[in-house]
Automatic annotation (TrEMBL):
<dbReference type="GO" id="GO:0016887">
    <property type="term" value="F:ATP hydrolysis activity"/>
</dbReference>
<dbReference type="Pfam" id="PF00005">
    <property type="entry name" value="ABC_tran"/>
</dbReference>
<keyword id="KW-0813">Transport</keyword>
<dbReference type="InterPro" id="IPR003439">
    <property type="entry name" value="ABC_transporter-like_ATP-bd"/>
</dbReference>
<keyword id="KW-0547">Nucleotide-binding</keyword>
<dbReference type="InterPro" id="IPR017871">
    <property type="entry name" value="ABC_transporter-like_CS"/>
</dbReference>
<dbReference type="GO" id="GO:0005524">
    <property type="term" value="F:ATP binding"/>
</dbReference>
<protein>
    <submittedName>
        <fullName>ABC transporter ATP-binding protein</fullName>
    </submittedName>
</protein>
<keyword id="KW-0067">ATP-binding</keyword>
<dbReference type="InterPro" id="IPR051782">
    <property type="entry name" value="ABC_Transporter_VariousFunc"/>
</dbReference>
<dbReference type="InterPro" id="IPR027417">
    <property type="entry name" value="P-loop_NTPase"/>
</dbReference>
<dbReference type="InterPro" id="IPR003593">
    <property type="entry name" value="AAA+_ATPase"/>
</dbReference>
Length: 235
Protein backbone atom coordinates (compact mmCIF):
# COMPACT_ATOMS: atom_id res chain seq x y z
CA UNK A 1 0.00 0.00 0.00
CA UNK A 2 2.87 2.32 0.87
CA UNK A 3 6.26 1.83 -0.66
CA UNK A 4 9.41 3.90 -0.73
CA UNK A 5 12.01 2.73 -3.22
CA UNK A 6 15.51 4.17 -2.81
CA UNK A 7 13.96 7.49 -1.79
CA UNK A 8 16.64 10.17 -1.74
CA UNK A 9 16.42 13.86 -0.94
CA UNK A 10 19.09 16.45 -0.26
CA UNK A 11 18.54 19.95 1.11
CA UNK A 12 21.62 21.99 0.14
CA UNK A 13 24.59 19.93 1.33
CA UNK A 14 22.47 17.98 3.79
CA UNK A 15 21.18 14.51 2.88
CA UNK A 16 17.75 14.23 4.50
CA UNK A 17 16.95 10.86 2.90
CA UNK A 18 19.54 8.37 1.64
CA UNK A 19 18.09 5.63 -0.57
CA UNK A 20 15.28 4.82 1.85
CA UNK A 21 13.40 1.57 1.22
CA UNK A 22 10.18 1.05 3.16
CA UNK A 23 7.03 -1.00 2.76
CA UNK A 24 3.80 -0.84 4.74
CA UNK A 25 1.14 -3.40 3.83
CA UNK A 26 -2.64 -3.49 4.40
CA UNK A 27 -3.53 -3.71 8.09
CA UNK A 28 0.00 -2.87 9.17
CA UNK A 29 0.95 -0.12 11.60
CA UNK A 30 4.53 0.91 10.93
CA UNK A 31 6.11 3.25 13.47
CA UNK A 32 9.11 5.29 12.42
CA UNK A 33 11.40 6.23 15.28
CA UNK A 34 14.48 8.41 15.16
CA UNK A 35 16.10 11.52 16.59
CA UNK A 36 15.34 15.09 15.48
CA UNK A 37 16.42 15.55 11.88
CA UNK A 38 16.48 11.80 11.10
CA UNK A 39 14.22 12.26 8.05
CA UNK A 40 10.87 11.00 9.38
CA UNK A 41 8.84 14.04 8.33
CA UNK A 42 10.64 14.22 4.98
CA UNK A 43 9.61 10.61 4.35
CA UNK A 44 5.98 11.40 5.15
CA UNK A 45 6.14 14.57 3.05
CA UNK A 46 7.37 12.55 0.05
CA UNK A 47 4.31 10.28 0.36
CA UNK A 48 2.08 13.36 0.62
CA UNK A 49 3.72 14.97 -2.39
CA UNK A 50 4.81 18.00 -0.36
CA UNK A 51 8.48 17.17 -0.96
CA UNK A 52 9.89 15.98 -4.30
CA UNK A 53 12.60 13.32 -3.97
CA UNK A 54 15.80 13.88 -5.94
CA UNK A 55 15.64 10.22 -6.92
CA UNK A 56 13.72 7.09 -6.00
CA UNK A 57 9.97 6.67 -5.76
CA UNK A 58 7.16 7.06 -3.25
CA UNK A 59 4.21 4.82 -4.13
CA UNK A 60 0.72 4.86 -2.62
CA UNK A 61 -1.38 1.90 -3.67
CA UNK A 62 1.06 1.48 -6.53
CA UNK A 63 0.58 5.09 -7.66
CA UNK A 64 3.75 7.13 -8.07
CA UNK A 65 3.14 10.23 -5.95
CA UNK A 66 5.54 12.42 -7.91
CA UNK A 67 3.87 11.59 -11.22
CA UNK A 68 0.22 11.47 -10.08
CA UNK A 69 0.01 13.50 -6.90
CA UNK A 70 -3.73 14.21 -6.85
CA UNK A 71 -4.62 10.62 -7.67
CA UNK A 72 -2.32 9.31 -4.93
CA UNK A 73 -3.71 11.75 -2.36
CA UNK A 74 -7.20 10.33 -2.79
CA UNK A 75 -5.93 7.22 -1.00
CA UNK A 76 -4.29 9.11 1.86
CA UNK A 77 -5.53 10.59 5.11
CA UNK A 78 -3.01 12.65 7.05
CA UNK A 79 -2.89 13.70 10.69
CA UNK A 80 -0.11 16.14 11.58
CA UNK A 81 1.20 16.90 15.06
CA UNK A 82 -1.26 19.76 15.34
CA UNK A 83 -4.55 19.36 13.52
CA UNK A 84 -5.46 22.76 12.07
CA UNK A 85 -9.16 23.50 12.40
CA UNK A 86 -11.35 26.60 12.22
CA UNK A 87 -11.63 27.79 15.83
CA UNK A 88 -14.97 29.57 15.36
CA UNK A 89 -16.64 26.49 13.90
CA UNK A 90 -17.82 23.55 15.98
CA UNK A 91 -16.21 20.12 15.73
CA UNK A 92 -19.07 18.94 13.55
CA UNK A 93 -18.96 22.03 11.33
CA UNK A 94 -15.22 21.54 10.82
CA UNK A 95 -15.80 17.92 9.86
CA UNK A 96 -18.59 18.88 7.44
CA UNK A 97 -16.28 21.48 5.84
CA UNK A 98 -13.17 19.29 5.51
CA UNK A 99 -15.21 16.29 4.43
CA UNK A 100 -16.77 18.31 1.60
CA UNK A 101 -13.24 19.03 0.31
CA UNK A 102 -12.67 15.30 -0.21
CA UNK A 103 -15.60 15.20 -2.66
CA UNK A 104 -17.35 12.48 -0.64
CA UNK A 105 -20.92 12.83 0.55
CA UNK A 106 -21.76 11.61 4.02
CA UNK A 107 -24.86 13.02 5.71
CA UNK A 108 -24.51 15.32 8.73
CA UNK A 109 -25.81 12.50 10.93
CA UNK A 110 -23.21 10.08 9.55
CA UNK A 111 -20.46 12.63 10.16
CA UNK A 112 -21.72 13.13 13.70
CA UNK A 113 -21.32 9.39 14.22
CA UNK A 114 -17.75 9.52 12.91
CA UNK A 115 -17.00 12.17 15.54
CA UNK A 116 -18.51 10.11 18.33
CA UNK A 117 -16.67 6.98 17.15
CA UNK A 118 -13.45 8.99 17.22
CA UNK A 119 -14.17 9.48 20.91
CA UNK A 120 -15.31 13.11 20.99
CA UNK A 121 -17.75 13.63 23.84
CA UNK A 122 -21.32 14.20 22.69
CA UNK A 123 -21.58 17.53 24.49
CA UNK A 124 -18.50 18.85 22.64
CA UNK A 125 -19.67 18.13 19.10
CA UNK A 126 -21.53 21.44 18.72
CA UNK A 127 -19.08 23.55 20.73
CA UNK A 128 -16.55 25.83 19.05
CA UNK A 129 -13.20 24.14 18.43
CA UNK A 130 -11.41 27.19 19.88
CA UNK A 131 -12.25 25.80 23.32
CA UNK A 132 -11.08 22.23 22.59
CA UNK A 133 -8.05 20.56 24.14
CA UNK A 134 -5.33 19.15 21.88
CA UNK A 135 -6.71 15.64 22.34
CA UNK A 136 -10.17 16.77 21.27
CA UNK A 137 -8.75 18.42 18.13
CA UNK A 138 -6.87 15.21 17.33
CA UNK A 139 -10.18 13.35 17.57
CA UNK A 140 -11.72 15.69 15.00
CA UNK A 141 -8.63 14.96 12.87
CA UNK A 142 -9.24 11.24 13.27
CA UNK A 143 -12.91 11.71 12.31
CA UNK A 144 -11.87 13.66 9.18
CA UNK A 145 -9.42 10.87 8.33
CA UNK A 146 -11.89 8.01 8.92
CA UNK A 147 -14.76 9.69 7.07
CA UNK A 148 -12.46 9.96 4.05
CA UNK A 149 -12.19 6.14 4.16
CA UNK A 150 -8.66 6.34 2.81
CA UNK A 151 -6.62 3.17 2.45
CA UNK A 152 -3.55 4.78 3.97
CA UNK A 153 -3.12 6.85 7.10
CA UNK A 154 -0.01 9.00 7.59
CA UNK A 155 0.67 10.45 11.03
CA UNK A 156 3.45 12.79 12.09
CA UNK A 157 3.95 12.77 15.87
CA UNK A 158 0.19 12.69 16.50
CA UNK A 159 0.41 11.90 20.21
CA UNK A 160 2.97 14.52 21.18
CA UNK A 161 1.51 16.60 23.99
CA UNK A 162 -1.41 14.23 24.61
CA UNK A 163 -1.95 12.97 28.14
CA UNK A 164 -1.50 9.20 28.65
CA UNK A 165 -5.24 8.49 28.56
CA UNK A 166 -5.74 10.46 25.33
CA UNK A 167 -2.65 8.81 23.85
CA UNK A 168 -4.03 5.41 24.78
CA UNK A 169 -7.40 6.20 23.19
CA UNK A 170 -5.50 7.27 20.10
CA UNK A 171 -3.81 3.87 19.94
CA UNK A 172 -7.18 2.14 20.10
CA UNK A 173 -8.36 4.20 17.13
CA UNK A 174 -5.21 3.32 15.16
CA UNK A 175 -5.83 -0.32 15.92
CA UNK A 176 -9.31 0.07 14.49
CA UNK A 177 -7.84 1.57 11.28
CA UNK A 178 -5.52 -1.38 11.03
CA UNK A 179 -8.31 -3.91 11.67
CA UNK A 180 -10.15 -2.38 8.72
CA UNK A 181 -7.19 -3.32 6.51
CA UNK A 182 -5.71 0.17 6.18
CA UNK A 183 -1.99 0.83 6.17
CA UNK A 184 -0.69 3.19 8.86
CA UNK A 185 2.69 4.96 8.87
CA UNK A 186 3.38 6.95 12.02
CA UNK A 187 6.44 9.04 12.87
CA UNK A 188 6.87 9.30 16.61
CA UNK A 189 9.32 9.87 19.45
CA UNK A 190 7.19 7.81 21.79
CA UNK A 191 8.94 4.44 22.10
CA UNK A 192 6.36 3.18 24.56
CA UNK A 193 3.42 3.99 22.27
CA UNK A 194 5.25 2.59 19.24
CA UNK A 195 5.81 -0.69 21.06
CA UNK A 196 2.14 -0.80 22.12
CA UNK A 197 0.52 -0.06 18.78
CA UNK A 198 2.91 -0.99 15.97
CA UNK A 199 3.10 -4.17 13.96
CA UNK A 200 6.60 -3.16 12.82
CA UNK A 201 9.01 -0.54 14.06
CA UNK A 202 11.76 1.13 12.05
CA UNK A 203 14.62 3.20 13.44
CA UNK A 204 15.93 6.04 11.27
CA UNK A 205 19.06 8.13 11.59
CA UNK A 206 20.77 10.49 9.12
CA UNK A 207 18.15 9.74 6.47
CA UNK A 208 18.68 5.98 6.61
CA UNK A 209 16.46 3.22 7.90
CA UNK A 210 18.92 1.41 10.17
CA UNK A 211 16.74 -1.45 11.32
CA UNK A 212 13.19 -2.76 11.14
CA UNK A 213 11.72 -5.16 13.69
CA UNK A 214 8.44 -6.84 14.49
CA UNK A 215 6.98 -5.09 17.53
CA UNK A 216 5.97 -8.48 18.93
CA UNK A 217 9.65 -9.50 19.07
CA UNK A 218 10.70 -6.75 21.51
CA UNK A 219 9.55 -5.56 24.90
CA UNK A 220 9.86 -1.92 25.98
CA UNK A 221 13.30 -2.41 27.50
CA UNK A 222 14.69 -4.21 24.47
CA UNK A 223 13.32 -1.53 22.13
CA UNK A 224 14.84 1.25 24.19
CA UNK A 225 18.15 -0.55 24.33
CA UNK A 226 18.21 -1.18 20.53
CA UNK A 227 17.27 2.46 19.95
CA UNK A 228 20.02 3.76 22.22
CA UNK A 229 22.62 1.45 20.62
CA UNK A 230 21.83 2.97 17.23
CA UNK A 231 21.86 6.51 18.59
CA UNK A 232 25.29 6.14 20.18
CA UNK A 233 26.85 4.21 17.27
CA UNK A 234 29.20 6.21 15.04
CA UNK A 235 26.74 5.93 12.13
N1 LIG B 1 12.45 22.35 3.63
C1 LIG B 1 13.65 22.09 4.13
N2 LIG B 1 14.70 22.86 3.87
C2 LIG B 1 15.94 22.58 4.35
N3 LIG B 1 16.19 21.52 5.15
C3 LIG B 1 15.18 20.72 5.46
C4 LIG B 1 13.86 20.95 4.98
N4 LIG B 1 13.05 19.96 5.46
C5 LIG B 1 13.83 19.16 6.21
N5 LIG B 1 15.10 19.61 6.21
C6 LIG B 1 16.24 18.98 6.89
O1 LIG B 1 16.20 17.60 6.61
C7 LIG B 1 16.56 16.85 7.76
C8 LIG B 1 15.45 15.88 8.12
O2 LIG B 1 14.37 16.62 8.63
P1 LIG B 1 12.98 15.94 9.07
O3 LIG B 1 12.06 17.06 9.42
O4 LIG B 1 12.56 14.99 8.03
O5 LIG B 1 13.44 15.14 10.37
P2 LIG B 1 12.53 14.43 11.47
O6 LIG B 1 13.10 13.06 11.67
O7 LIG B 1 11.10 14.51 11.13
O8 LIG B 1 12.85 15.31 12.75
P3 LIG B 1 11.92 15.73 14.02
O9 LIG B 1 11.89 14.53 14.91
O10 LIG B 1 12.67 16.87 14.61
O11 LIG B 1 10.57 16.12 13.48
C9 LIG B 1 16.86 17.86 8.87
O12 LIG B 1 18.23 18.09 8.93
C10 LIG B 1 16.13 19.11 8.39
O13 LIG B 1 16.77 20.28 8.86
Amino acid sequence: MLQAIALTRQFGQHKALCALDLHVGPGEIFCLLGPNGAGKTTTINCFLGFVQPDSGQALVNGINVQQHREQARKHIAYIPETVMLYPYLSGLENLVFFHALTGMHHSRQELLEYLLRAGLQEDAVHRRVGGYSKGMRQKVGIAIATAKQAAVLLLDEPTSGLDPAASNEFSVLLQRFSNEGRAVLMATHDLYRAREVASRIGIMKHGRLLTVMDAADVDHYALESIYMEHMTAAR
